[in-house]
Every structure is written in structure tokens, then in C-alpha cells.
Design goal:
The complex is a heterodimer of chains A (299) and B (174). Chain A is an alpha+beta fold. Chain A has three helices and twelve strands; from the N terminus they run αααββββββββββββ. Chain A has a six-stranded antiparallel barrel. Chain A has a six-stranded antiparallel β-barrel with strand order 6-7-8-11-10-9. In chain A, β3 and β4 form a beta hairpin. The termini of chain A are far apart. Chain B has 174 residues and is an all-alpha fold. Chain B has a single domain, classed as Orthogonal Bundle (Arp2/3 complex 21 kDa subunit ARPC3), CATH 1.10.1760.20. The radius of gyration of chain B is 16 Å and the shape is globular. The chains are: A alpha+beta (299), B mainly alpha (174).
Chain lengths: 299, 174
């Protein structure tokens, strides 16, 4: 097939051909240089500058199109979820029954502990969503761009500085910690998720009173780090934000926001700290709405 | 390329970019996301050549980066190279062949994913190589499923150019 004869088009004079190739190469090289310049500027100053403002304005201009696209797709998504739900209803029913049985057992255990430990009772109270930290006010927002790829550990919400959202405000989904505001635009804000490499949260185990640092470990899993091997952390323990200990160094997160549950605990002879894996409470890949906790008093 | 063709191409890429960011980015199947923008760009590049592919990829990437508030220029960089490369393939050998869109989408999906991985790694951002490699085959399959209908739509909107305008076919032997 490779040696078979092929048809050539009409011969073109050499100078014109060479000129066309030169223009083609100039265009692509120019575009690559502009793209690299944009990446450099955007990467060096991700939260300020003229490019940041232009990007914010562009994002605002594109929002109506995004909302329209989402609304057009919504009936199809609903239909898919309905069919998918029907197909999985039987298996889900069995799974939920089992989950319900376990939750009932755990609830009895938790209530018994709550009666003994007032602080644990307060945590339970918070977990059930009845109270927020008294020195914070919530700003509810819808998620307009969820994390859409394995690289993305952030999402965009439809509330920005005009709604009172501030940089480094904690973000929750119901009673569970989601992440922190990492970039603020007038009408939108970017939330860096718990699973981002740069997110570190001081955590506290109310049951064993152990403190540590929750962040992403090797392989992308969430871990509780800096816990000495002589301390005890149990599988199933609830981890909450540790909050501020010293007024000089206020923590970004208020005390008592549930982060997740300890899913496994391990120790090796060579490691200094326990290897504690954490399963976050918030389902970070499918969030529809979140609340930004903004301090009432400026920090 | 006429002005009408340019407007149609720009509208196609804009709709594909908005749909990608708003709808398809949430549709994960076996860890992969169907990339309607990449498939549209491949179809456009095959039909209209490397310069249109590169320019279209650049501006479609800008729309994606602006809408998702990501690092500006990052998607543009990868899509520019993808559009140019597929455009060249279309201009030299692939334009009239039935398998060209499918072959191009399969190869570009892999190169696009690897390219993004490399760029994120170079910038010191999260670059989960394992997750990307695991999702490569589902991503190729999903994009191949989209190729037939999207190529048909793009070809209907942008009729192939006159054969005389094509560059000479590359002869590998002799």
C-alpha cells in the first residue's frame, strides 16, 4: 500500500509554497509564545494583577452561557439519574439497609459516649448541623464549576467579594469541611479542596484528644500526620478542626468542624509518626452547594 | 477560509468549550471525562488545516481557562499544538481517509492527556500520573464514541475545501 501510486495535486510555484509554510510556522510559534507568556504571568500572580481582573471579567461574561448550558443539560442529567437510580435501586436498598443497621448501632454507641463527655456532645450537636461557630457567619453559594479532572483539586462558587467572601475563609458542605477560599473575584471565588497538595488543616480527635495535621499524603489519600506512635488513634474516630490555641496565631478554621473519619491506622518501626488514613465526610467530587464561613470580626 | 467559515468555526469551538466546562466535565465514566472540545478541534483541524487548528485551539483553550478560572494559557498551549499537529496531518495525508478522524482523536487524546500531565508537573502542580494513565483507555473510548457524530456535524457545517487547494500528498516510498 505504501508503494502504490498516489495522485499529486497541481504543482505550485516554490516561493508561494515556502511563504505559506513560513506563515504557518510563524502563526503557531507566535501562539505558543503568547500561551507560555500567559501561563507565566498567570502562574506568578494567581490572585492579583491586570490578568487576574481580565480573567474575572471574562469568567463573569461567560457565566450566563455556562448557566444556559447547565439548564439545557439538566433534563438529560435527571433522566439519566432516574434510569440509573432504577437500575441500582435493588442493590442500593440492600446496601442502605446494611448501612442503616450499622448507623443505628453506632448511634447508640455515640449517644452513650455523649452522655459521658460534654465536649463530644457538643461535637455531635455540630455534626447534626444545628449550630455554626458563633464568631462566623455563613454565606451560602452554589458550585458552578466542580473539579472536572484528576488534576483539579478546586471548585468555583457563585459568590465572591461582593457577597462578602474573603480570602482564606473555610468552606463547609453541611457539617463537613470542604476546603478553603484560595482566590476571590467580584462574583465568584475559587475553593481549594481538602485533597489539594497545599491544603493543611490542624485536626483534633475528640475521643482520644490527639492532635495532628490533615493533608494529602502519597498516592493522593488524605492522612492525619504528625501523630507520635505512642499516642492512640482508633479506626472510626471522628476528626474535627483543632481551631485556635494561641490568640497570637489564630487558625484559619474554627474549632469543631468535622473533617472526616479515620479509615485505617498503621505504624512501622522506621516511621516517626503513625500512618493514619482519613476518609473525608464531604463527597468532594459531587458538591452542589457549600457555605463559606466568614469571620464576623476582621482578622 | 471564508469569513462565514470563520464565524461558524468560532461558534462551534465556543459552544464546545462552554459545554465541556459546564456539562461534560461532570460526566465521569471509569475515571475519564469525554472531551467534546478536543474532538471538535480535531474535526475542525482536519477539515480546515493547521493554521485554523492552531488558532482555534488557542482561543478555545482561553475560553476553558477563563471559565474554569484555571491557570490562563495552560489549556491554550496544549490545544494549540494539538490543533496544529492534526491540521498538518489533514493537509498532508489524512484529510480524505475515512479512518483519519478516529485515528487522530485516539492519538491526540493520549498526547493531550500526557501533555497536560507534563505541563502540570513542570509547573509544580498536582500531576497524578497513575490516575491519568488508568483513565487513558476509557478517555480514548469515550472520545471515539463522540467522534462520528461530531465529525459529521462539523463536516456538514464546514464543507471540505476544493481538492486543488490541498497540499500534495506525502509519498513515503519512492
Amino acid at each position: 500500500m505504501l508503494a502504490s501510486s498516489v495522485q499529486r495535486s497541481k504543482p505550485t510555484p516554490y516561493p508561494s509554497k515556502a511563504r505559506s509554510a513560513l506563515i504557518r510556522r510563524a502563526v503557531v510559534v507566535g501562539l505558543v509564545i503568547v500561551a507560555l507568556a500567559l501561563v507565566t504571568v498567570s502562574f506568578r500572580s494567581p490572585t492579583a494583577g491586570a490578568l487576574h481582573s481580565v480573567q474575572g471579567a471574562g469568567s463573569t461574561a461567560l457565566r450566563p452561557f455556562q448557566i444556559a448550558a447547565t439548564r439545557i443539560a439538566q433534563p438529560f442529567r435527571d433522566a439519566y439519574e432516574y434510569v440509573h437510580g432504577l437500575a441500582n435501586a435493588k442493590a442500593e436498598n440492600k446496601r442502605l439497609r446494611e448501612q442503616n443497621r450499622k448507623l443505628r448501632a453506632r448511634n447508640v454507641h455515640t449517644v452513650a459516649l455523649a452522655a459521658l463527655e460534654p465536649s463530644l456532645a457538643r461535637l455531635l450537636h455540630f455534626e447534626h448541623g444545628r449550630t455554626f461557630p458563633h464568631d462566623f457567619r455563613p454565606i451560602n453559594a452554589a458550585v458552578i464549576t466542580p473539579p472536572g479532572s484528576p488534576y483539579t483539586h478546586s471548585l468555583t462558587i457563585d459568590a465572591g467579594s461582593s457577597a462578602g467572601v474573603r480570602l482564606n475563609s473555610p468552606v463547609v458542605n453541611g457539617p463537613a469541611l470542604v476546603g478553603i477560599v484560595s482566590n476571590v473575584f467580584p462574583d465568584t471565588a475559587v475553593v481549594r479542596l481538602l485533597t489539594d497538595d497545599n491544603t493543611y488543616v490542624a485536626a483534633f480527635d475528640p475521643r482520644t484528644r490527639v492532635r495532628g495535621m490533615v493533608h494529602t499524603g502519597p498516592g493522593g489519600t488524605l492522612i492525619l500526620d504528625q501523630v507520635k506512635k505512642e499516642l492512640r488513634v482508633n479506626e472510626g474516630d471522628v476528626l474535627v478542626t483543632a481551631g485556635t490555641h494561641s490568640a497570637r496565631y489564630p487558625d484559619l478554621y474554627p474549632y469543631g468542624i468535622p473533617i472526616g473519619r479515620v479509615s485505617s491506622v498503621g505504624a512501622t518501626d522506621t516511621a516517626t509518626f503513625l500512618q493514619v488514613q482519613v476518609q473525608p465526610y464531604a463527597n468532594l467530587s459531587s458538591l452542589d452547594a457549600v457555605a463559606v464561613l466568614v469571620p464576623k470580626k476582621p482578622r | 477560509m471564508t469569513l462565514g467559515d470563520g464565524v461558524k468555526a468560532a461558534a462551534l469551538l465556543f459552544v464546545a468549550a462552554v459545554a465541556q466546562v459546564s456539562i461534560f466535565s461532570q460526566a465521569q465514566v471509569f475515571g475519564a471525562v469525554p472531551d467534546v472540545l478536543l474532538v471538535t478541534l480535531v474535526a475542525l483541524s482536519l477539515l480546515r488545516g493547521s493554521v485554523v487548528g492552531a488558532v482555534g485551539g488557542f482561543f478555545a483553550g482561553l475560553v476553558v481557562d477563563t471559565a474554569s478560572l484555571g491557570t490562563l494559557g495552560l489549556t491554550s498551549l496544549v490545544l494549540t499544538l494539538a490543533g496544529y499537529w492534526i491540521g498538518r496531518y489533514g493537509e498532508t495525508t489524512g484529510r480524505d481517509r475515512a479512518h483519519a478522524p478516529f485515528l487522530s482523536v485516539a492519538v491526540v487524546t493520549v498526547l493531550y492527556q500526557v501533555g497536560l500531565l507534563v505541563v502540570h508537573f513542570v509547573l509544580g502542580e498536582s500531576a497524578p500520573g497513575g490516575a491519568v494513565m488508568r483513565s487513558l483507555i476509557p478517555a480514548v473510548v469515550l472520545n471515539l464514541i463522540l467522534t462520528g457524530p461530531i465529525y459529521a456535524v462539523v463536516r456538514r457545517l464546514l464543507r471540505p475545501t476544493n481538492r486543488d487547494e490541498l497540499t500534495a500528498e506525502v509519498q513515503l516510498l519512492g
